[in-house]
Amino acid sequence: MNADLSQGCTREWLLAGLLVLMSVLSVAVPAGVMAEETAPFEFTYPKQRLTAPAFQLQDLNGNDVSLEIYRDKVVLVHFWATFCIPCLGEMPVLESLWQQYGGEGLVVLGIAGDRGNTEIVREFAEKTGVSFPVVHDADGRVRNQYEVAALPTTYLVGRDGKISGRAVGTRSWNEPGGREIIETLLATRATEYP
Predict the structure, then answer these.
(1) Of 75, 119, 135, 154, which one has the fewest beta carbons inside 10 Å?
(2) 155, 50 Cβ separation under 8 angstroms
(3) Cβ neighbours, 10 Å, residue 38
(4) Is pLDDT at 30 greater than 60 in this prediction?
(5) Do 26 and 64 have their domain in common?
(6) In terms of Cα–Cα distance, which of 141, 129, 157, 127 is closest to 58?
């Protein structure tokens, strides 16, 4: 009987201690740390806007595409590859941007970094329903020009042909922070940049 009483008291003390610990944690831990929280949209703005490096690559149909043909448009230059799992998850978001803002002057330009045959990239684009322009950087020349060290990496090029910013890693471009950046660039004419 004494053992039962002892176990009951121990359980009560453990329960009381747990309640005290939970109440301390609820005060000591900042709001949102214990719950999943959306991080602010991270985008790196350059100290000085430089002209985006010129390039010419072939699209998935063998046509030459250069950055210059998109002058006076806002270009989201997205470096990705079919083997990059995070890149694949971002494609529907980029397609959504292309569909929503393409008529306002946004070009989503996918630069696939897969080595070798373009057919792999073409099959991927067809399977996923990607309709924005995709070019193939099989030898990595353009990735080197843009100093891409990780996939995905995205550059935004303003209507004046200069780099407006960069994001390394996946981004939720459909969320308010991403849309705000794109809408601001779309609202800026080429002559209004500093």
Answers:
(1) 119
(2) no
(3) 10
(4) no
(5) no
(6) 141
Q: Tell whether 45 is covered by a domain.
A: no
pTM of the predicted model over 0.90: no
What is the residue range of 16's domain?
1-37
Which residue from 46, 52, 50, 54 is spatially nearest to 141, judged by alpha carbons? 54
| pLDDT confidence tier of residue 12, bands split at 50, 70 and 90 | low
Is position 183 within any domain?
Answer: yes
Q: Do 145 and 101 sit in the same domain of this protein?
A: yes
User: For position 10, what pLDDT does the model report?
Assistant: 53
Give the Cα separation of 135 and 178 in Å (integer). Answer: 23
Q: How far is CA 121 from CA 111, 116, 151, 177, in A?
A: 10, 10, 15, 30
Tell me how many domains the chain contains.
2
Residue 43 domain-assigned?
no
